[in-house]
Write a sequence for this structure.
C-alpha cells in the first residue's frame, strides 16, 4: 500500500534537487529563488486539507476512499514533471511548479491517511517507517538520475537559458515511475469500508459544512498536535532552506563553480562565448553532483528506516527521543557543510541529514495518529500539513534570506541557518508529554 510513495518521492526529489537549478539556468538571481519556490507550500496549504476532507467523505466499492485521489494526482503530476524542464522562460517554470506541487499533494495526503486507516495503533510506527523506507529509495534514485544519465553520454551542455538534456531525460523518467508506482498501489490495495455506512451516507449529504468543519477541527486540535506543530515548523524551515538554496550554496562554496552571469561576458567575442559555455557546463556538472550528494540523505534515511522497521515490528520505541536525537544530528550535518574541506565530505553531511529526514517522515505522523479521532484522520492529516507549509511560506517570503544574511552574504550561510533550525526542532521534543504519542507497546495491545 506504500509502494506508490516511490513515485511520489521521485517527483519530490527531482523537484527538491533540481528545481533551483532550472530557475538558475533560466536566469533567476539566487536571492529570488526562495520566492519562486513559494508555489510549493502555498499549494500544500490549500490542497491538503481539502483533499483530506473530501477523501474522508468518499467511498466507492470499486475504488475505495483514498485511491481515487492517488490516481488523479499521479496523472497530473506525471504530465507536469515531463513538461517542467522544457520551460522556455522563468515564469513558465514557476507556473509548472505550482501545477506539479498541487498534483503531488493530491496524491500524497491520502497516502498518509491510508496507513492510519488500515493499520491498528500497534503497527503505525511500523507502517510509517516502512513508508519512509520506500521514500528513501525514491529520493536516492531520483537524485542520482541527472548524474547517471550524464555518465551515459547525455549532454550537460546547453545554450543560454536552456535546461540540459540530461535533466530533461531525468524528469521524463521520473514522470513514468510516478505514474506506474501509483497505479500499482491503486490496483493492488484494498480499503476498508466505513464502519457505519448509514451514518457515513448521512454525513456525506450534509452540505455547506466544509469550511466550518475545517475551522472546527483547527480550533479543537489536541495539545499534542500543537506541540508537534512547533517541531514541524523548525524542521520544515530547515528543509525548505536546503531545497531552495543548496544548489547555489554548494556549487559556489564547495565546487567553486557558480552559475555564470551572461552579462559578465562579451557575447560578441567568440572567446568569451566559449568561456561562458565552459563555465555553464561546469556549473551544470557541479549541479549534477549536488543532486547526487543530496541523494545520500535519501539513502541514509532509507537505512535508518530499515533499522526502525525491524525494531518497531517487534518492540516499542520512544518516538520522542528518537525524533529529538535524529533532528539534532541532522542539524549538525547542515552546519558541517560550511567547514568541510572537499566535496567528498558532503556524503557525511547528507548522511546525518538523512537521519533527520527519515524521522521527520515517520515519527510525527506516528505520534499524531495516536492522538486523534480515527474518523477524522484524513482532515487531521491535511490540517497538520499547515505546520509544514507555513514555515516554508515564511522562508519563501524572505525569512531564509533575512536569516542567513544575519551571518553573512555568502549563500552557504543558509545551510548554517538550516542546521540551527533543525537543532531547535529537536530540542522542542521535550514538550511532548502524551504517553500514547511517545510510545506504544505491541505486547500491551495483544
Amino acid at each position: 500500500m506504500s509502494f506508490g510513495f516511490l513515485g511520489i518521492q521521485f517527483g519530490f526529489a527531482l523537484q527538491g534537487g533540481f528545481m533551483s537549478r532550472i530557475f538558475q539556468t533560466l536566469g533567476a538571481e539566487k536571492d529570488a529563488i526562495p520566492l519562486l519556490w513559494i508555489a510549493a507550500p502555498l499549494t500544500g496549504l490549500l490542497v491538503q486539507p481539502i483533499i483530506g476532507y473530501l477523501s474522508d467523505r468518499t467511498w466507492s466499492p470499486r475504488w475505495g476512499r483514498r485511491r481515487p485521489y492517488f490516481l488523479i494526482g499521479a496523472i497530473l503530476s506525471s504530465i507536469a514533471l515531463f513538461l517542467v524542464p522544457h520551460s522556455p522562460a522563468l515564469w513558465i517554470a514557476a507556473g509548472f511548479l505550482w501545477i506539479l506541487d498541487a498534483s503531488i499533494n493530491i496524491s500524497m495526503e491520502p497516502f498518509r491517511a491510508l496507513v492510519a486507516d488500515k493499520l491498528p495503533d500497534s503497527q503505525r510506527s511500523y507502517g510509517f517507517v516502512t513508508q519512509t523506507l520506500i521514500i528513501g529509495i525514491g529520493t536516492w534514485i531520483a537524485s542520482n538520475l541527472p548524474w547517471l544519465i550524464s555518465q551515459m553520454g547525455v549532454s550537460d551542455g546547453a545554450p543560454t537559458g536552456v535546461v540540459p538534456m540530461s535533466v530533461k531525460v531525468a524528469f521524463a523518467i521520473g514522470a513514468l515511475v510516478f505514474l506506474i508506482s501509483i497505479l500499482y498501489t491503486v490496483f493492488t490495495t484494498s480499503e476498508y469500508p466505513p464502519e457505519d455506512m448509514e451514518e457515513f451516507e448521512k454525513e456525506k449529504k450534509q452540505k455547506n459544512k466544509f469550511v466550518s468543519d475545517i475551522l472546527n477541527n483547527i480550533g479543537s486540535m489536541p495539545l499534542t498536535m500543537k506541540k508537534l506543530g512547533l517541531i514541524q515548523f523548525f524542521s520544515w524551515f530547515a528543509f525548505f532552506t536546503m531545497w531552495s538554496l543548496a544548489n547555489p550554496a554548494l556549487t559556489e562554496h564547495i565546487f567553486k563553480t557558480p552559475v555564470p552571469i551572461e552579462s559578465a561576458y562579451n557575447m560578441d567575442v567568440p572567446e568569451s562565448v566559449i568561456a561562458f559555455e565552459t563555465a555553464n557546463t561546469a556549473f551544470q556538472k557541479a549541479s549534477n553532483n549536488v543532486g547526487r550528494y543530496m541523494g545520500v540523505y535519501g539513502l541514509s534515511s532509507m537505512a535508518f528506516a530499515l533499522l526502525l522497521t525491524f525494531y518497531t515490528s517487534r518492540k516499542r520505541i520512544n518516538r520522542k527521543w528518537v525524533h529529538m536525537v535524529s533532528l539534532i544530528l541532522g542539524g549538525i550535518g547542515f552546519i558541517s557543510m560550511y567547514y568541510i574541506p572537499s566535496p567528498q565530505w558532503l556524503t557525511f553531511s547528507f548522511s546525518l541529514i538523512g537521519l533527520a529526514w527519515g524521522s521527520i517522515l515517520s515519527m510525527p505522523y506516528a505520534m499524531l495518529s495516536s492522538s486523534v479521532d480515527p474518523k477524522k484522520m484524513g482532515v487531521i492529516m491535511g490540517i497538520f500539513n499547515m505546520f509544514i507549509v507555513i514555515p516554508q511560506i515564511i522562508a519563501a517570503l524572505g525569512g531564509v534570506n533575512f536569516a542567513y544574511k544575519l551571518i553573512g552574504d555568502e549563500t552557504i550561510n543558509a545551510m548554517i541557518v538550516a542546521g540551527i533550525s533543525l537543532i531547535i526542532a529537536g530540542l522542542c521534543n521535550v514538550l511532548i508529554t502524551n504517553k500514547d504519542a511517545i510510545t506504544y507497546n505491541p505486547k500491551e495491545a495483544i
